[in-house]
Design goal:
Number of strands: 14
Shape: globular
Strand order of the largest sheet: 5-14-11-4-9-10-7-6-8
Order of helices and strands: HHHEHHEEHHHEEHEHEHEHEEHEHEEHE
Strand content: 15-25%
Structural class: alpha+beta
Largest sheet: 9 strands, mixed
């Protein structure tokens, strides 16, 4: 398709606005521009509305008509189309005022919503999956080139997600929790978030479930999940649930069905990761992912040297070395490789990289692992390549 110069410029401008959204900005390059072209097509009205978010990512109808120059009827029509395409979140605020928010390329945005629904198996789906894979490779290469300069910035970033531990063993037993006999120190305005999926589900009337976008995208790329984990377990709550169901990304479920799916995810060894608006854990959860070690984009991007893992958690695993028989189950299951066997064939845990997810404790056949309380932020820097290599990643935590 031959495009006129003005349309090409609009694609570039729109990509520039979208790439600025979210916690981590993405490069405006041929790949990110191609993603916008692929998703939006040649609709200049849609590109113009995207560009209207340049100065402010969330706008009311009154603000958006002013920034875009469109009538309210046109804004509603175009925004509805962009919402179905995964680029705009359009839901009323708590006071009933409709708010339109431009979404980022990923985490949580366009990529997640495009692969959250039923897969079509068509060529367009495969092309989009390949474009996102190429973009992540480019991000990784840029991080590796500028590793030392970027690391301090990463360390200042808030937790992207929050681990909600599984506290039930594989056989239904309750995992031992080591209580801390002191008040957890938090800022005055901080509200300690819910520490169980049961408590989170109980808070919401609107709950929706869609497919895991990470495992779905890997499947499209021909890279099936090594853990063979189920996919229908990506949850949204409240306003986010109303949005995902309205756009066809997910379907409504009851509290009972949600709990059943969560328990199936735990049985598959998946990690519950909760998301909060703007990473503010004092605000109610918007979603829960159920992540596997193999496909989770956050874990893969860390492992492949693209981005750090920044997580909030309320627990850390504790290993009873007298009970450990060195079977290695926990080593295989740990999503961040926080556990290894020492020279005596006994499991050892690196607390700095433990997400406190409880998967190791759930599946330990010797009941040698407990969970110790303690609210903390886990920061794991991206794995680092040796100079000139694209594999054989080194761990920056080790000399």
């Amino acid at each position: 398709m031959v495009m006129n110069a003005s349309l090409e410029q609009k694609f570039q401008r729109a990509a520039g606005v979208v790439c600025k959204q979210g916690l981590f900005p993405f490069p405006v390059n041929d790949t990110s521009i191609s993603i916008i072209k692929h998703v939006v097509g040649d609709s200049e009205d849609e590109l113009d509305l995207v560009c209207a978010f340049k100065s402010k990512a969330s706008q009311t109808m009154e603000e958006l008509t002013g920034s875009s120059g469109f009538s309210s009827e046109d804004v509603r029509r175009i925004a509805d189309t962009l919402a179905r395409k995964g680029l705009i979140f359009n839901q009323p605020s708590g006071s009933g005022i409709m708010v339109y928010r431009l979404l980022p390329l990923m985490n949580v945005g366009l990529m997640e919503y495009k692969f959250m629904g039923e897969l079509t198996g068509d060529k367009a789906e495969k092309k989009l999956a390949l474009l996102f894979e190429k973009l992540m490779t480019e991000v990784r290469d840029n991080i590796q080139r500028n590793y030392d300069q970027l690391l301090p910035t990463f360390k200042m970033a808030p937790a992207v997600d929050r681990t909600v531990a599984s506290t039930a063993g594989e056989d239904g037993r309750t995992i031992r929790v080591i209580r801390v006999d002191k008040v957890v120190e938090t800022p005055e305005e901080f509200i300690l978030p819910s520490q169980s999926v049961e408590e989170i589900i109980g808070k919401f009337d609107d709950i929706a479930v869609g497919h895991c976008f990470c495992r779905q995208r890997r499947k499209v790329l021909g890279d099936g999940c090594a853990t063979q984990a189920p996919t229908l377990n990506c949850f949204t709550f409240g306003k986010s649930a109303r949005h995902t169901t309205a756009q066809g990304f997910a379907r409504k479920v009851t509290k009972e069905e949600a709990l059943k799916i969560m328990k199936e995810a735990e049985a598959a060894g998946l990690v519950h990761k909760a998301y909060h608006p703007a990473s503010n854990e004092s605000r109610p959860e918007t979603s829960i992912c159920n992540c596997c070690k193999d496909c989770c984009d956050a874990i893969r991007m860390w492992r492949e040297g693209a981005l750090p893992l920044i997580n909030s958690t309320y627990y850390v695993s504790e290993i009873d070395t007298d009970l450990c028989t060195g079977c290695g189950t926990c080593v295989d299951l740990c999503p961040t490789d926080a556990i290894s066997l020492n020279a005596e064939n006994v499991a050892e845990r690196d607390a700095d990289v433990c997400l406190g997810c409880g998967v190791c404790a759930r599946f330990c056949p010797d009941e040698a692992i407990s969970l110790k309380e303690g609210l903390r932020k886990v920061f794991i820097p991206p794995q680092r390549f040796r100079e000139g290599q694209t594999s054989g990643i080194t761990d920056p935590r080790k000399p």
